[in-house]
């Protein structure tokens, strides 16, 4: 036990291929079905079940329908507040984005380790969050250039900029615009990874403290355990907040594309 | 850090499955189911707005009805009061004329009766005078043995009676 007590806080992020490792390929690229893919599937199915439960379409909604309508209404309000009436058409995309990230974050926190299974938080991988971020950014670019053609570049010159300052401001704004997909994807990945690492490190303290025998060890264990409980609550909050931030920033970027300034 | 250590082997699989599952969520849930959920909410909101409007209209109608009823009832009350006043006036007039008629009748009767009484009295007085004069004449004749002229007796009696 003393050997196994050495907890590697990064091990939880390891991607393990489940099947299709060798033969599943598209144009030479490996597309093995991994534990990461499995949890994407679980999140998708959970979301499908959740939304399907709210599809009774009753005039007087039950609890489940109320919950689903609460989420759609939340996204609808978010887009109406940030983009205006033109935001209505982005509801399916932002809803999918928000709910997928939310379910992924929350499912990654389910303490399945107690029954021997290993939950995997695919939002703690920038290869996964990057896809979502690039997708959001691509939509912003497509909508922006589709609606405003080359006039979209005026986004980089705020109103009232003195003429002399325009080249410099343009360069700064352009860089800050191009950084958006990275900040969007990395923010979610870092937030999720940091929380999971912290929990893992603290659980390592708990185990090592107990193994250290009588003395200061158990005290450290108890303190770490109390801290873990608090951080678990915090992580639940972060799971929601990060999903919200992702959806909110995407809608703000879409607002730039829809309405320029 | 497995995210970076495994990057070379796993990035294509991660991106592929991410696109697959996000695509599934977007097209099946986002495009397929969310609009229906929102349509339900929309329909409910419209139903509520419609019901509220209907209730408001009904309230306005009820108010108008009440107002009309009040006006009507005021009018009818005024009419009734006019009818009552008219009837009262007519009744007063009728009773006045009947009273006047009755009064006149009574007065006529009274006058007639008084006339009769006066006549009877004067008749009676005359009779008395006559009887008294005769009696006086007789008395004088018997007492004094004088024969008194009827005319003189009459005048004396009249004097005595009217004194």
Computed structural class of chain B: mainly alpha
Number of domains of chain B: 1
Q: Provide a count of the helices of chain A.
A: 6
Question: Structural class, judged by helices and strands of chain A?
Answer: mainly alpha
Spatial arrangement of strands, main beta sheet of chain A: 1-4
> Helix-strand pattern of chain A, N to C?
EEEEHHHHHH
Q: Please name the two chains that share the biggest interface, counting residues whose Cβ lies under 8 Å from a Cβ on the partner chain.
A: A-B, 53 and 37 residues
User: Mean pLDDT across all residues of chain B, rounded?
Assistant: 89
In sequence order, what are the helices and strands of chain B, one letter per element?
A: HHH
* Residues in helices of chain A, as a percent range: 55-70%
Strand content of chain B: under 5%
Mean pLDDT of chain A: 87
- Give the N-to-C terminal Cα separation of chain B: 165 Å
| Quaternary status | heterodimer
Q: For the CA atoms, what is the radius of gyration of chain A?
A: 23 Å
The helicity of chain B comes to over 70%
How many β-strands of chain B, per DSSP?
Answer: 0
């Amino acid at each position: 036990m003393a050997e196994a007590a050495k907890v590697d806080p990064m091990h939880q992020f390891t991607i393990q291929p489940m099947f299709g490792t060798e033969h599943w390929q598209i144009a030479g690229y490996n597309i093995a079905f991994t534990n990461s893919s499995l949890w994407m599937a679980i999140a998708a199915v959970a979301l499908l079940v959740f939304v399907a439960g709210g599809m009774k379409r009753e005039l007087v909604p039950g609890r489940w329908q109320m919950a689903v309508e609460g989420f759609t209404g939340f996204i609808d309000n978010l887009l109406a507040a940030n983009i205006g009436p033109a935001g209505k058409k982005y509801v399916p995309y932002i809803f999918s984005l928000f709910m997928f990230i939310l379910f992924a974050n929350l499912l990654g926190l389910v303490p399945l380790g107690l029954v021997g299974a290993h939950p995997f938080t695919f939002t703690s991988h920038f290869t996964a969050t990057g896809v979502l971020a690039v997708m959001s950014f691509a939509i912003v670019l497509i909508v922006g250039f589709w609606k405003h053609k080359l006039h979209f570049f005026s986004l980089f010159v705020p109103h009232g900029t003195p003429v002399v300052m325009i080249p410099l401001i343009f360069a700064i704004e352009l860089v800050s615009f191009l950084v958006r997909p990275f900040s969007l994807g990395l923010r979610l990945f870092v937030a999720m990874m940091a929380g999971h690492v912290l929990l893992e490190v603290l659980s390592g303290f708990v185990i090592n403290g107990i193994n250290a025998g009588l003395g200061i060890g158990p005290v450290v264990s108890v303190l770490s355990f109390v801290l873990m409980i608090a951080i678990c609550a915090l992580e639940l909050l972060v799971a929601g907040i990060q999903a919200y931030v992702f959806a909110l920033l995407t809608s703000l970027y879409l607002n730039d594309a829809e309405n320029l300034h | 850090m497995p995210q970076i250590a495994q990057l070379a082997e796993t990035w294509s699989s991660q991106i592929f499955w991410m696109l697959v599952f996000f695509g599934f969520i977007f097209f099946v849930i986002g495009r397929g189911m969310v609009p229906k959920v929102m349509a339900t909410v929309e329909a409910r909101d419209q139903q509520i707005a419609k019901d509220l409007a209907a209730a408001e209209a009904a309230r306005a109608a009820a108010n108008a009805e009440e107002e009309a009823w009040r006006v009507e009832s005021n009018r009818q009350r005024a009419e009734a009061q006019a009818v009552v006043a008219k009837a009262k006036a007519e009744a007063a007039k009728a009773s006045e004329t009947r009273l006047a008629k009755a009064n006149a009748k009574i007065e006529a009767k009274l006058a007639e009766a008084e006339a009769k009484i006066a006549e009877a009295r004067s008749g009676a007085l005359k009779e008395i005078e006559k009887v008294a004069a005769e009696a006086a004449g007789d008395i004088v004749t018997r007492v004094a043995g004088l024969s008194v002229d009827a005319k003189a007796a009459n005048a004396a009696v009249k004097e005595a009676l009217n004194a």
